[in-house]
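User: Hi! I have a protein structure encoded as tokens and I'd like to know what sequence might fold into it. I'm fairly new to this, so please keep things simple.
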């Protein structure tokens, strides 16, 4: 019931067609049920007695009823299609918008492939189930009730046949549904794995070909595809029992109705017209039972999809605004006070431990450290992509948890390790930083990021189309475009997470020079592999196993810190790189 209540919230503006659909369905059913009843009178008082006036009169009435029933059916189909398509549209909208509010912790809970499956396959299944519910799930029971009532009116003893049939069919369907539902739950989880395999293969196609691993990838795909086939086959074998069961019930009912009906005619308890009507009602009841069984099968399939959709809809972001959020970031000062952080929110599994730092507005801060030293984790706490497990982070003298999220993140620009460009022109990608930026603004930030020169070499310049993921530009070009996009925000804090690793040292130096001259009041955090990328920083932070091992200027660290000195000497003398 909670599942239905939660999903029904997505009907919204489509309540009217959702209500009108069953109204027209009931109208169609009533008209269809009246037709066999009038047919009995047509046969008994018209055809059997040779009364042409009765035949014509009843014939006209039956034609009018048939046309009216057809009209109701068409209207039910029209409103049903509108309601189900609108319901699916709102479901996708609600899921997608809720995902936009997820924190990184929430996103980590659902894989990308799983969310895609839920937005596509699962929504389609629920849409079909909703259409069947507002149309056929109303039509089938209504038809059964009205047709059964008319059968009781004509001959109560024959109506008992349908009660027995309903009990037999109900028990059979209960067995099928109870055993099929768990299998479909496994099927949709396996669909997530299939999407993941395909997604990874397409994204890493260059790597696959470079290492000649096509056979390995094909094997992975075959395994998960075979798993889906096996599960679906198992479920469909159970659902296939529905067909023979329905055939048995339908033919058994028809034989019993004809057998006992003939006896009633011989004994004079029924007329020929009444037997024809009962036979028509029998077909209506049995067809309704068949439709009802199909609906239950569809609901069984869609129930697993509905549960997966509601999981996304009910997921609440663990990072939200406070009651009275601060709406202005006054400065780019950043202070870490006894900060602990765990991705699992477990004090026993800390990624960062006991971090204390004070960075003044306008300072350039370099961050160095080996693999797994939590460099990226440190900077991701500043714009509240994650919340600290213990301690405080102050930006502009205010705890980041007290800021309005949009306000805080508007003043913190990040260029992450995994640079992402979206399909569209270079201009459209750059304007993610500022939708209202002029062409002159775009050129200015691209010059700062050393991107203007290569953009001008493209035939279409800033109108050059970027393919999905930026696949038609090099790694260094992508990094510079992402830096330009971040600069367009005019942030108080700029974070570059290993964002110049794909550019040469000369370009890297030019970018840092532009930062010093053009944005002197912006606090800059630079995570780097190369010592040269942070050699002119005001402060350098050395991270080691989630702790701050040392803080100081390059000159100070050269004299006091062994880690920095070893890295400096290895790179300047041996030409190596600090492992990220």
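Assistant: Happy to help. Inverse folding works backwards from shape to sequence: for each of the 580 positions I chose a residue that suits the local structure. Here it is:
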């Amino acid at each position: 019931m909670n599942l239905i209540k939660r999903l029904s919230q997505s009907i919204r503006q489509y309540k009217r067609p959702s209500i009108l659909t069953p109204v027209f369905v009931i109208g169609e059913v009533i008209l269809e049920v009246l037709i066999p009843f009038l047919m009995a009178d047509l046969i008994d008082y018209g055809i059997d007695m040779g009364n042409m006036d009765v035949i014509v009169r009843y014939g006209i009435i039956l034609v009018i009823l048939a046309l009216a029933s057809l009209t109701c059916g068409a209207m039910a189909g029209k409103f049903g299609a509108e309601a189900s398509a609108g319901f699916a549209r709102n479901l996708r909208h609600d899921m997608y918008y809720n995902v936009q509010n997820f924190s990184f912790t929430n996103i980590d809970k659902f894989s990308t492939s799983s969310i895609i499956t839920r937005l596509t396959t699962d929504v389609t299944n629920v849409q079909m189930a909703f259409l069947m519910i507002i149309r056929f799930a109303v039509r089938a029971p209504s038809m059964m009730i009205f047709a059964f009532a008319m059968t009781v009116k004509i001959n109560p003893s024959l109506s008992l046949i349908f009660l027995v049939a309903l009990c037999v069919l109900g028990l059979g369907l209960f067995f099928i549904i109870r055993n099929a539902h768990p299998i479909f739950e496994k099927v949709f989880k396996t669909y997530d794995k299939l999407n993941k395999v395909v997604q990874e293969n397409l994204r890493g196609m260059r790597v696959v070909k470079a290492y000649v691993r096509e056979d390995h990838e094909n094997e992975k795909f075959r395994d998960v595809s075979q798993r889906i086939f096996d599960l679906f086959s198992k479920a469909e074998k159970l659902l296939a029992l529905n067909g023979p069961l329905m055939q048995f019930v339908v033919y058994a009912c028809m034989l019993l109705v004809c057998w006992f009906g003939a006896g009633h005619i011989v004994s004079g308890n029924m007329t020929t017209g009444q037997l024809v009507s009962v036979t028509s009602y029998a077909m209506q009841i049995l067809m309704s039972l068949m439709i009802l069984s199909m609906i239950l099968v569809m609901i069984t399939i869609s129930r697993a999809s509905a549960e997966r959709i509601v999981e996304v809809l009910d997921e609440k972001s663990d990072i939200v605004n406070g009651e009275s959020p601060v709406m202005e970031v006054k400065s780019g000062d950043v202070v870490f006070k006894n900060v602990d952080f765990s991705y699992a929110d477990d004090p026993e599994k800390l990624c960062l431990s006991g971090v204390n730092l004070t960075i003044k507005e306008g300072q350039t801060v370099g961050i160095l450290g080996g693999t797994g030293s939590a460099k990226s984790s440190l900077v991701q706490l500043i714009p509240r992509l994650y919340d600290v497990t213990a301690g405080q982070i102050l930006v502009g003298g205010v705890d980041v948890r007290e800021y309005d999220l949009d306000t805080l993140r508007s003043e913190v620009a990040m260029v992450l390790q995994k640079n992402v460009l979206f399909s569209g022109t270079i201009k459209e990608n750059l304007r993610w930083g500022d939708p209202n930026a002029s062409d002159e603004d775009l050129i200015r930030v691209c010059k700062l990021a050393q991107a203007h020169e290569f953009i001008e070499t493209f035939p279409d310049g800033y109108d050059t189309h970027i393919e999905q993921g930026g696949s038609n530009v090099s790694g260094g070009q992508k990094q510079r475009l992402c830096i330009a996009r971040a600069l367009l925000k005019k942030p108080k804090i700029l974070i570059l997470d290993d964002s110049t690793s794909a550019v040469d040292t000369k370009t890297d130096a030019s970018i840092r020079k532009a930062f010093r001259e053009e944005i002197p009041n912006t606090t800059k955090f630079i995570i780097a592999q190369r010592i040269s990328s942070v050699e002119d920083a005001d402060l350098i932070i050395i991270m080691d196993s989630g702790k701050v091992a040392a803080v100081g200027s390059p000159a100070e660290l050269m004299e006091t810190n062994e880690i920095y000195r070893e890295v400096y000497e290895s790179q300047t003398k041996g030409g190596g790189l600090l492992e990220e």
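A useful reference point when you look it over: The first strand starts at residue 334 and ends at 341. Feel free to ask if any position seems puzzling.
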